[in-house]
Amino acid sequence: MIGGGYVGLVSGTCFAEFGTDVAIVETNPDRLAALREGRIPIYEPGLDRLVAENVEAGRLTFGDDIAAAVKGADAVFVAVGTPSRRGDGQADTSYVYAAVEQVARVAEGYTLIVTKSTVPVGTGREIARIVHATRPDLDFDVASNPEFLREGNAIVDFMKPDRVIIGIDQSKPGGTERAQNILRKLYRPLYLLERPIVFTGLETAELIKYAANSFLAMKITFINEISDLCEKVGADVNDVARSIGLDGRIGKKFLHPSPGFGGSCFPKDTRALTAIGRNAGSPVRLIETTVAVNELRMKAMGERVIALAGGDVKGLTVGVLGLTFKPETDDMREAASIVVLDQLDKAGAKIRAFDPAGMETARPVLPKGVTYCKDALDAATGADILVVLTEWNEFRSLSPEKLKARMTGRKVADLRNIWDPESLKEAGFDYISLGRPDVVHTA
Ligand code: NAD
Ligand code: UDX
Question: What are the residue boundaries of the UDP-glucose/GDP-mannose dehydrogenase C-terminal domain, all occurrences included (predicted)?
């Protein structure tokens, strides 16, 4: 497994748990040192125990020696990053190609190279070209096996996936069967659990990943726009989402309004799909719009907080609950908090923030002036306004009376709808949330 980040570490550990011997290669010295010392460099519930058990059982090892890991391997998975390229939004495949070249140089005997990273359509073919150019003598196949795990629920998502997608170059005589057999064997426990495993072509597998993520991002963006509409017409988005979701064709998941989708996947993958569509002469206009609407939404959230303050936050203290792009992760990549806190900071607010897992990852990407607090009530202390940006469960149970005792002001912007407007109203707060009637006390 080349790359020991969120995907490489979780997939590698889960394959080991399935009974396979896995060598994870990681070049980041801090991450590698942590893994070797038995520490997990990312926050992912349950991963520490699973890693420890598989290391103990001798099925899972960590190192930076690619030759040692690749030697004798039946399959080599590439799980390195594919971040957005600045400017055109295309996925940057340079880490993938660099890893593949390294693999090709040291591979011995038949080698199956599998992309777990999310890669643009055509990457598999380019990998085959690079491997052939690097090692014309090497017997190899290329497969695409995109990963659908969600951070925070990654182990369950990997062990009990809705489906596994495997793309193999179907034009290569003989290659398909050998590669298929290796991947079938690796995923054997999922056959026993009767999880669907779809075998398809390389390009199709690559596109499936972008289509899936973009559809989900579009679904969220749809409910976010309906949420705005609810506010204008006096409707309740929770009831709208629940009711449309009861139609099995729509489905109830991914219909929670939010300050905008973030994370390491949806923003970059929607941008990449629009680039793939434009380059292929077949623009995916719904996703182009999704990208634009989501960017505007994050900015609109900061403006909402400023409007709640009466149009000016200069000198005011804003308490912020939640920084990560969603709960149960420490990941700050493209979190809405980055956009919102930047606006509040530029407008002169004093920001007191708390996140249960993201305090360390947040520091480098948030404005310098942010004060990091020891818990939620500490963040609320002396706040004129309290803003909820991530729906961590521990925030749900905070009582309005306790918040009131700590805060100086009486204004709450709940941008994840974690609280009941009635209880905030009873406690005397001015309370805004998403797609539900505002509670505003007039003096
Ligand atoms: P990440 O940045 O957490 O991990 C990538 C790791 O690869 C890093 O630790 C980096 O040091 C290492 N690396 C880079 N080049 C290397 C090399 N040549 N040899 C060894 N190690 C190397 O990224 P991630 O979140 O795990 O994402 C990886 C890929 O999986 C991306 O394409 C992403 O789109 C996709 N993906 C991510 C998720 C998710 O939830 N994070 C879910 C599905 C798919
Ligand atoms: C996503 C995909 O779900 C996963 O299949 C893929 O492999 C990687 O990308 P992840 O980024 O970990 O997973 O988180 P996810 O739970 O999908 O949330 C992404 C963003 O959408 C978060 O910012 C979240 O707050 C937001 N979201 C999600 C909403 O705003 N509303 C919802 O109803 C669901």
Answer: 319-421
Each domain of the chain, given as residue ranges in start order, spans 6-200, 239-443
Amino acid identity for residue 255 in this structure: L
Closest protein CA for atom 31 of ligand 2: 256
256 close to ligand 2 (CB < 6 Angstrom): yes
pLDDT by 10s per residue, the chain, length 443: 999 999 999 999 999 999 999 999 999 999 999 999 999 999 999 999 999 999 999 999 999 999 999 999 999 999 999 999 988 999 999 999 999 999 999 999 999 999 999 999 999 999 999 999 999 999 999 999 999 999 999 999 999 999 999 999 877 766 689 999 999 999 999 988 899 999 999 999 999 999 999 999 999 999 999 999 999 999 999 999 999 999 999 999 999 999 999 999 999 999 999 999 999 999 999 999 999 999 999 999 999 999 999 999 999 999 999 999 999 999 999 999 999 999 999 999 999 999 999 999 999 999 999 999 999 999 999 999 999 999 999 999 999 999 999 999 999 999 999 999 999 999 999 999 999 988 887 54
Q: What is the pTM of this model?
A: 0.96
CATH number of the domain at 6-200, please?
Answer: 3.40.50.720
Q: Which ligand is nearest to the CA of 42?
A: 1
Q: Given the CA of residue 41, which atom of ligand 1 is nearest to it?
A: 9
Q: How distant, in Å, are the alpha carbons of 238, 286, 293, 321 from that of 393?
A: 18, 33, 28, 11
The ipTM assigned to this model is: 0.98
Within 13 A of 34's CA, how many CA atoms are on the CB side?
Answer: 16
Contacts of 181 (CB under 8 A, 6+ apart): none
Host H or E run for residue 78: strand 75-78
CATH topology for the 239-443 domain: Rossmann fold (3.40.50)
Angular region, 203: left φ>0, alpha ψ -120 to 50, beta rest: alpha
Catalytic residues: 265
| Residue minimizing CA distance to atom 16 of ligand 2 | 150
Separation of 6 CA from ligand 2 center, angstroms?
Answer: 14
Q: Which ligand is nearest to the CA of 7?
A: 1
